[in-house]
């Protein structure tokens, strides 16, 4: 198989499209000529445009797959694994309303942006107990795969759902969890709250977490109306009997900046709008709120509410869900009070004198806020407009400017909200695992679902994008290692010769971000300096990192001043340093922290206590001292301390995030990982619209293409000998194939197939049980197979036609024969009936005549005996032949015997006086009359007929038969 044959005329290839969108159009090779190492291809693209292309190796256009493979449900089975083929396969399937596609161990899920009937109880049922690959690709197949792997040996499983904002991560994660948590009962119903009959308590509780987390952790963004602004990891816990006993929730990097600022097209967290729309007016009044939320600074910067009615309904759903996880109405009121306090905080007006910031003592917003927070307004005011710097020898108090005071005010709101969110997650966990984590202690194994933000790249990228991309870089590293390890494991197991495949390891980028002298370390150091600034941070970055060793991953952008660029595995991202320090610090001043922790509001104190002090160790012991065997990513305290009562440190957001990410990665390594990559097909959230450049960018960013590249570098196609032989044995000689198949000499067949197809030795290897093929081999084999099958099909079609024609003719002849036979049989049957009837009637005539003769004789005898006075007429008088004559007639052999049977004249009928004639007599009479009336001339002609009436001569009704019918046969 040479390059020349790969580009033989008729071959279909991809060419870069003219739209400079990084996509392709398809083309067909018209001719291919080789000179030295280069090929010259004459091509005609799908628009009919012809062109010539000269190149070699990678500069030749990527090949298109045979039609059979083009919309394969597993991209790993594509023979030509290249970017356009992958994109084309995903696009074709999406057009066929198939939103899921496998890419090796990854499931790609393209958002349909409209409800699809793919999650019905019947479909859930069909995936239970089925192996991945048996049915169409589906989220449930991945979930069932994880469940089956866990049931097999109790190993923990993790399903990582990633993708960009609005790609469908949360929806997919919810479906996966519902599938796993749903009881696998045989009876399924259509209750929309449960996949199966009788949702388990855990399923109900897990479902209840959704409205709460969505209300407090989701917001409308430009990319998604219900965007999760935090990463979450839910672990479903199973006991020794592999029954679900509870669940555990961990969360990552809640976006705090949204509390105090939103762009015009976005909104704050849903709960604030729900509160204003859903609370009864008296409660609103008590909390100093207004149904018109536009009076609040924290709510009026962003866009309008999508639907207030919706907000009201959602508020009631949130209240119900809070009830389900055990937060009673009283506590709910306390939560709403804190939320109201935050809205009032945002409305505290800070003005600027010539040098200092001032807050009016009578500011009603401050009054409300401090009342609900339980903090002294004067203290609050003091530490909002002033700052205390502690030096070695003394404490210096300085005044702040108005913008600085606003920063402090907002940082308090963000901090309190983050603590409230943390407290809610703790409450959810208590409901899912029991107060002391009983369920976790009882659990033997788990299935975790990680719903984490995907790689982000905007025009302006800030600290949030840095953290998100850092997380993705770490996850990608785990993914590469895992995929790579799987591939290499197979090679080792199958004992094939292989050399280590080089792939783009993203470890340098990770080191750059989290290393000892990396970006996060420099940021932390700068954040702790009282005079630290974004500019000095950037200076330090450049001084420390802009070195030849980091050339590949760290760049100083040419045209942006306050920015730095990181070459991520997906693409280069430039980050603007403005706000990095502030966001990384994002803790309240020490004085405010003291005020809040000593608040007169017990609920607020509990919230802060939970968030700051109760950092859970990875495996919390239950009251009886049992420690969970299930790996737990743990929860990092917002204060960064472990244990009650220790001093409250102020960790930076970056360090908190790095810590929690580290434990998450450790946990992932202890479990089997399954991947779901969600893809957003277009930016307008339009159903069934596919924007190729956008999807391509996501495929690159999700690492799917990199995985494909890793696979392509090795032997991407690997088949069991038997499977390969069964599919391609037709390619070898027809005498050999079936015999070898019968003898099950699979390996020999594989070797013959490759030999026959001219596959180079470097393009394949035989393992212990599998055959390994390089990229492109399968496409060649498929091409040969389909050519051969076409020929076979042609032969078969014609042979079948001939056989069918022959069969038809034989059948036709048989049908006519059977018809003739049956018609004859029917005719004979009806003839027999007629004859039988005629014979019976003849018998009856005979009997009637005999009876009549007897009656006549008796009458005559009686007449003779009875003296009537009347003269008995002589035989000549009455027409009788007379005694002597009668005697003569009855004598044997008399010539006149026939005269009795056939008298010349009809004998007069005896008078039937006083009696009705019997039926026999009547029949006799009728028959004899009919006989006498019948054609006398014909009777006269036949002497035999004259003796007895031959009723066989009577006309027989003619049955309907055709010319071929032989009645007498
Ligand atoms: N399987 C699906 N069927 C129908 N619609 C879906 C599906 N998945 C996602 N969607 C639609 O896409 C929207 C966005 O999905 P989702 O909120 O899950 O995205 P996300 O990736 O979690 O986004 P973010 O990262 O911003 O939270 C949903 O509100 C829903 O309308």
TrEMBL record:
Keyword Magnesium listed: no
- Keyword list, A-Z: Actin-binding, ATP-binding, Hydrolase, Motor protein, Myosin, Nucleotide-binding
Keyword hit for Plastid: no
Would you say which domain of life the source belongs to? Eukaryota
Region Actin-binding, annotated ranges: 661-683
Single GO molecular function: actin filament binding
GO annotation, biological process: actin filament organization
Recorded hits in SMART domains, A to Z, give: IQ, MYSc
Which residue windows does the record flag with biased composition (Basic and acidic residues)? 854-866
According to the record, the residues making up region (Disordered) are 615-647, 850-969
Q: Kindly give the Pfam families that the UniProt entry links to this protein.
A: IQ, Myosin_head
GO cellular-component terms in the record? cytoplasm; membrane; myosin complex
For ATP, which residues are the binding ones?
Answer: 163-170
Q: Where is the Myosin motor domain?
A: 70-786
Q: Which Gene3D superfamilies match?
A: 1.10.10.820, 1.20.5.190, 1.20.58.530, 6.20.240.20, Kinesin motor domain, Myosin VI head, motor domain, U50 subdomain
InterPro entries in alphabetical order: IQ_motif_EF-hand-BS (IPR000048), Kinesin_motor_dom_sf (IPR036961), Myosin_head_motor_dom-like (IPR001609), MYSc_Myo5 (IPR036103), P-loop_NTPase (IPR027417)
Record field: compositional bias (Low complexity)? 929-945
Entry's family note: Belongs to the TRAFAC class myosin-kinesin ATPase superfamily. Myosin family.
Protein's recorded name: P-loop containing nucleoside triphosphate hydrolase protein
């Amino acid at each position: 198989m040479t390059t020349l044959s790969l580009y033989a005329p008729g071959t279909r290839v991809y060419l870069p499209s003219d739209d400079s969108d990084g996509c392709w159009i398809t083309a067909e090779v018209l001719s291919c000529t080789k000179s030295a190492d280069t090929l010259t291809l004459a091509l005609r693209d799908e628009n009919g445009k012809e062109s010539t292309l000269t190149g070699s190796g990678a500069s030749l256009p990527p090949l298109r797959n045979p039609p059979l493979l083009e919309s394969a449900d597993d991209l790993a089975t594509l023979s030509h694994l290249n970017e356009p083929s992958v994109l084309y396969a995903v696009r074709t399937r999406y057009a066929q309303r198939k939103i899921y596609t496998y890419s090796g161990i990854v499931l790609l899920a393209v958002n349909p942006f409209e409800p699809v009937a793919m999650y019905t109880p019947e479909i859930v049922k069909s995936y239970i107990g089925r192996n991945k690959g048996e049915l169409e690709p589906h989220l449930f197949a991945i979930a069932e795969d994880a469940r089956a792997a866990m049931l097999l040996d109790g190993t923990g499983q993790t399903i990582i759902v990633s993708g960009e904002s609005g790609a469908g991560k949360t929806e997919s994660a919810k479906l996966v969890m519902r599938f796993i948590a749903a009881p696998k009962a045989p009876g399924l119903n259509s209750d929309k709250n449960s996949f199966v009959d009788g949702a388990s308590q855990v399923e109900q509780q897990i479902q209840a977490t959704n409205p709460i987390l969505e209300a407090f952790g989701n917001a409308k963004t430009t990319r998604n109306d219900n965007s999760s602004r935090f990463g979450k990891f839910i672990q479903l816990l199973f006991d020794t009997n592999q029954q679900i006993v509870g669940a555990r929730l961990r969360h990552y990097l809640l976006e705090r900046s949204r509390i105090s600022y939103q762009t015009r097209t976005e909104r704050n967290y849903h709960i604030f709008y729900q509160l204003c729309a859903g609370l009864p007016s008296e409660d609103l009044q008590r909390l100093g709120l207004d149904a018109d939320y536009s009076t609040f600074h924290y709510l009026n910067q962003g866009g309008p509410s999508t639907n207030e009615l919706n907000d009201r309904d959602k508020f009631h759903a949130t209240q119900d869900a809070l009830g389900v996880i055990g937060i009673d109405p009283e506590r709910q009121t306390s939560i709403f009070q804190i939320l109201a306090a935050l809205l009032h905080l945002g409305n505290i007006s800070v003005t600027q004198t010539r040098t200092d910031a001032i807050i009016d003592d009578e500011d009603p917003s401050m009054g409300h806020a401090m009342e609900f927070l339980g903090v002294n307004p004067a203290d609050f005011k003091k530490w909002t407009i002033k700052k205390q710097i502690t030096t070695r020898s003394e404490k210096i108090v300085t005044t702040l400017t108005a913008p600085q005071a606003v920063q402090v005010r907002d940082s308090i709101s963000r901090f309190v909200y983050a603590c409230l969110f943390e407290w809610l997650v703790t409450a959810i966990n208590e409901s899912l695992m029991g107060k002391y984590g009983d369920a976790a202690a009882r659990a033997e194994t788990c299935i975790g679902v990680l719903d984490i933000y995907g790689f982000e790249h905007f025009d302006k990228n800030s600290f949030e994008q840095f953290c998100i991309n850092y997380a993705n870089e770490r996850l990608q590293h785990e993914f590469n290692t895992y995929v790579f390890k799987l591939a290499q494991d197979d090679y080792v197991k199958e004992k094939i010769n292989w050399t280590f495949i080089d792939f783009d390891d993203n470890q340098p980028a990770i080191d750059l971000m989290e290393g000892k002298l990396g970006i996060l370390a420099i940021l932390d150091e700068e954040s702790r300096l009282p005079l630290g600034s974004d500019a000095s941070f950037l200076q330090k970055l450049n001084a420390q990192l802009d070195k030849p060793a980091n050339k590949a991953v760290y760049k100083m952008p040419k045209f942006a001043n306050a920015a730095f660029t990181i070459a991520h595995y997906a693409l280069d991202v430039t980050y603007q340093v403005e706000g990095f320090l502030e966001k990384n610090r994002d803790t309240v001043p020490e004085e405010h922290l003291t005020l809040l922790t000593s608040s007169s509001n017990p609920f607020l104190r509990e919230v802060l206590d939970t968030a700051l002090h109760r950092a859970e160790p990875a495996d919390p012991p239950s009251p009886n001292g049992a420690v969970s065997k299930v790996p737990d990513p743990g929860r990092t305290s917002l204060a960064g301390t472990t244990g009650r009562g220790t001093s409250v440190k102020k960790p930076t957001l970056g360090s908190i995030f790095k810590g929690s990410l580290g434990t998450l990665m450790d946990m992932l390594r202890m479990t089997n990982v399954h991947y779901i990559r969600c893809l957003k097909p277009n930016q307008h959230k339009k159903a069934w619209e596919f924007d190729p450049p956008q999807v391509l960018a996501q495929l690159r960013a999700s690492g799917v293409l990199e995985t494909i590249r890793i696979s392509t570098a090795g032997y991407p196609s690997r088949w069991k000998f038997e499977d390969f032989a069964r599919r391609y044995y037709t390619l070898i000689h027809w005498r050999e194939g079936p015999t070898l198949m019968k003898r099950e000499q699979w390996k020999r067949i594989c070797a013959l197939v490759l030999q026959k197809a001219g596959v180079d030795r470097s393009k394949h290897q035989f393992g212990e049980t599998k055959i390994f093929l390089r990229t492109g081999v399968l496409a060649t084999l498929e091409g040969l197979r389909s050519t051969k099958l076409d020929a076979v099909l042609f032969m078969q079609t014609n042979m079948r036609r001939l056989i069918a024609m022959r069969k038809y003719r034989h059948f036709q002849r048989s049908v006519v024969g059977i018809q003739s036979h049956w018609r004859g049989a029917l005719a004979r049957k009806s003839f027999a009936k007629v004859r039988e009837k005629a014979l019976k009637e003849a018998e009856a005539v005979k009997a009637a005549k005999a009876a009549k003769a007897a009656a006549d004789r008796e009458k005559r005898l009686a007449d003779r005996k009875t003296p009537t006075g009347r003269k008995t007429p002589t035989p000549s008088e009455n027409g009788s032949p007379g005694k002597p004559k009668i005697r003569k007639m009855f004598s044997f052999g008399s010539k006149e015997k026939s005269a009795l049977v056939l008298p010349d004249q009809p004998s007069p009928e005896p008078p039937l006086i006083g009696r009705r004639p019997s039926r026999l007599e009547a029949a006799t009479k009728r028959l004899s009359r009919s006989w006498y009336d019948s054609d006398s001339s014909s009777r006269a002609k036949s002497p035999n007929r004259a003796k007895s009436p031959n009723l066989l001569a009577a006309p027989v009704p003619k049955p309907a038969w055709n010319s071929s019918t032989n009645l007498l046969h």
